Inverse folding.
């Protein structure tokens, strides 16, 4: 790189910084910037186009084009050369613009006399902000070095945080990150919340993009990269993985941290006048732009590594850790790309809502959010890039919609809706101590699902009859080694204490498939949901299940112990698991421990095979609980985690109801109590149909107990049974429309 060019570039950046710092009006400042750049680069025209919305660019300042065109000239993304730069995120550099493919001139600007054209994207960390354009009469192409200089200038412009405020003469639109935005996502946990944004991983803020002294900046960069390399080496050593593929990924990560190309590009940026952190950000922006265009998943992952390393490097350079010293606002609504269950547990109940860019309904974070009854929206677009700490935000967990920086009309409508829901909740609370009894006199027991000690207070507030499903995975998932028997026993005992004599049904560990323990070697199975999971692991490698059973027996000491085994697919699995529990009880007896005064051993019915199991299965089980989430996915061959197929098959399809009826019949014949503990039990319409088909126990999220009880109490279950039977014979695929219409007319 020529020395004179780098020093020119540095001079330009320093003048730019002074202009940015000067106390002039926004538009005036932007105008000064364009003339400064034109003069420094020796071109007749310098223009800045900014995004007005995601599809339109607006000419916001120019030196050289007609002043009347400013804020008047607009073009669509993809239109003309400027639009091409905006769409592709790539530089266009041509000596003869009019002969370039896609060229389109805007007569009002007077640009027809200019031949050469350079367009450089203005983007910040993959977020497109606009296009910086230079034009000149002589037909010259710019050298790679000159282009590089213009990119560095564009980078500094991108750091002007309020660029968007210049669009539409400052009145039509607010600045970027100040406009209202709406995100449509999936529902992880229902409920509504209003609050302020709290970013789980706040963006690192680069306050000084221009270097005072390039030598100092280079030293800072070298030191920071050294620190980064040491931390990556440590991470590799600590990972102690033996998995070959994982090793390769970590090695690739280390390779990037040591990449000479990366280091050289950042050093060049500094020589051009950027500060060390701005140089890191510039390369990160470039990597993100590439990331969005690379179709190959492996390469995209590697670019993602680079992105991650850049974030670490920025933290080292700016001293901004995750903990930025910012204070959590009141009514915090957590925004994150994704979050693990452990991190969510650390936040605890203080959060009013959670919005994730990724996440899935069955993720552990979703389980924790449900346990805390915190509204959760998943798959919410690019909200983590758009939101800023402290932004006003509304989370509508019923509709799966998030309003960021909402307008007054939205706020009013949202608050009205919340008030109506609060009234409804009040009505449900008044039913708390009343039975879930249909108009025909049939009573259904409503239990709650739980998985954390934190769930237990809901037992009293919801009026649940007991805990119909206590998922025991979370105590294993949120720690970095297998929990100790004593600790588990203490937790289970606390859960039973908190239940104050109400029955708690503990389900033994259901790991594998979507629930992989962090300290377990992940198995490479083609279909993990059909793979080595739950009871299959428990029986093949009995050490952990035995330990868990011992902990449960000790926790129950002198009380009733209710245990159920997950994912039973054939009779012998249940027989073996049951015998294992009985053997453990014997062992505890010989060791002199106090035994439970009663033991109930049940099975989860989660595979269609068990509907047709030998009669002995129904007789041997003290109770059976339908795991509808799994049963449905296997019955319909539709992955419960796959958004494309998850909702395709209705629970109230005649075929699924026929299956349920068969289970009810078989349990009745063996006098075995039957419950349903999948998500569908908490949906009022489904719940009332299950009850009409003869199900007498339903277990659901605590928040669903009120709505389900309310509908059951308004329904004559015997009449509903007749309605279902008639609809089943009518040739309809699902009884839902008929049942819904009947309930509207009859469940007053
Ligand atoms: C089910 O499958 O319905 C169930 C309750 O278990 P889980 O959702 O934990 O797999
Ligand atoms: Mg299940």
């Amino acid at each position: 790189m020529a020395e004179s060019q780098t020093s020119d570039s540095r001079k330009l950046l320093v003048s730019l910084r002074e202009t940015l710092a000067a106390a002039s009006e926004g538009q005036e400042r932007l105008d000064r910037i364009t003339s400064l750049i034109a003069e420094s680069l020796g071109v007749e025209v310098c223009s800045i186009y900014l995004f007005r919305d995601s599809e339109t660019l607006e000419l916001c300042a120019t030196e050289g084009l007609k002043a009347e065109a400013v804020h008047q000239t607009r073009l669509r993304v993809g239109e003309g050369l400027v639009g091409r730069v905006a769409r592709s995120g790539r530089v266009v550099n041509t000596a003869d613009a009019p002969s370039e493919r896609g060229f389109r001139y805007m007569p009002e600007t007077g640009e027809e006399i200019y031949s050469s054209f350079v367009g450089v994207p203005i983007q910040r960390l993959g977020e497109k902000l606009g296009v910086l354009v230079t034009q000149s009469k002589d037909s010259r192409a710019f050298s790679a070095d000159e282009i590089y200089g213009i990119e560095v200038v564009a980078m500094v412009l991108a750091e002007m945080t309020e660029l968007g405020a210049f669009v539409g003469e400052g009145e039509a639109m607010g600045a970027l990150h100040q406009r209202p935005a709406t995100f449509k996502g999936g529902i992880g946990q229902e409920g509504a919340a209003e609050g302020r944004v709290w970013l789980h991983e706040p963006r690192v803020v680069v306050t000084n993009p221009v270097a005072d002294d390039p030598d100092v900046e280079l030293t800072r960069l070298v030191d920071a990269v050294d620190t980064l390399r040491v931390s990556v080496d440590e991470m590799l050593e600590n990972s102690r993985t033996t998995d070959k593929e994982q090793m390769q990924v970590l090695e690739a990560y280390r390779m990037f941290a040591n990449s000479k190309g990366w280091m050289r590009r950042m050093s060049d940026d500094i020589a051009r006048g950027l500060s060390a952190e701005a140089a890191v950000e510039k390369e990160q922006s470039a990597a993100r732009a590439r990331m969005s265009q690379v179709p190959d998943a492996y390469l995209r992952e590697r670019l993602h590594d680079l992105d991650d390393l850049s974030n670490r490097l920025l933290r080292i350079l700016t001293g901004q850790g995750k903990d930025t010293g910012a204070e959590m606002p009141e009514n915090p609504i957590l925004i994150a790309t994704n979050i693990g269950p452990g991190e969510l547990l650390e936040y605890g109940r203080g959060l009013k809502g959670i919005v994730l860019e990724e996440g899935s309904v069955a993720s552990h974070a979703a389980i924790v959010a449900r346990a805390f009854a915190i509204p959760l929206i998943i798959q919410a677009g690019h909200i983590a890039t758009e939101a800023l700490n402290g932004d006003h935000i509304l989370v509508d967990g019923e509709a799966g919609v998030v309003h960021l920086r909402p307008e007054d009309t939205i706020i009013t409508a949202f608050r009205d809706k919340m008030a109506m829901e609060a009234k409804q909740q009040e009505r449900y609370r008044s039913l708390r101590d009343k039975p879930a009894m249909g108009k025909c006199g049939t009573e259904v027991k409503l239990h709650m699902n739980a998985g954390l000690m934190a769930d237990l207070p809901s037992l009293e507030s919801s009026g649940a009859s007991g805990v119909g499903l206590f998922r025991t995975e979370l105590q294993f998932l949120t720690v970095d080694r297998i929990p100790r028997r004593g600790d588990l026993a203490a937790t289970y005992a606390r859960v039973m204490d908190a239940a104050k004599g109400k029955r708690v049904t503990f389900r033994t560990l259901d790991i594998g498939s979507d629930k992989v323990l962090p300290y377990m070697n992940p198995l490479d199975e083609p279909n993990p949901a059909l793979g080595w999971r739950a009871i299959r692991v428990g029986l093949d490698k009995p050490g952990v299940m035995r330990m868990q059973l011992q902990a449960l027996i000790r926790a129950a000491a002198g009380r009733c112990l209710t245990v159920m085994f997950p994912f039973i697919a054939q009779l012998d699995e249940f027989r073996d698991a049951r015998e294992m529990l009985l053997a453990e009880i014997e062992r505890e007896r010989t060791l002199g421990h106090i035994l439970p005064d009663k033991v109930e051993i049940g099975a989860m019915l989660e595979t269609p095979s068990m509907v047709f199991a030998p009669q002995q299965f129904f007789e041997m089980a003290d109770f059976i609980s339908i795991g509808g989430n799994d049963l449905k996915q296997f019955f319909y061959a539709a992955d419960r985690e796959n958004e494309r197929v998850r909702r395709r098959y209705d629970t109230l399809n005649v075929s699924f109801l026929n299956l349920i009826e068969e289970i009810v019949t078989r349990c009745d014949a063996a006098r075995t109590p039957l419950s349903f503990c999948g998500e569908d039990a908490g949906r009022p319409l489904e719940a009332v149909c299950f009850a009409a088909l003869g199900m007498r126990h339903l277990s659901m999220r605590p928040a669903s107990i009120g709505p389900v009880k309310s509908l059951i109490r308004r329904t004559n279950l015997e009449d509903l049974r007749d309605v279902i039977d008639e609809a089943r014979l009518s040739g309809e695929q699902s009884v839902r429309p008929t049942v819904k219409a009947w309930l509207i007319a009859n469940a007053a």
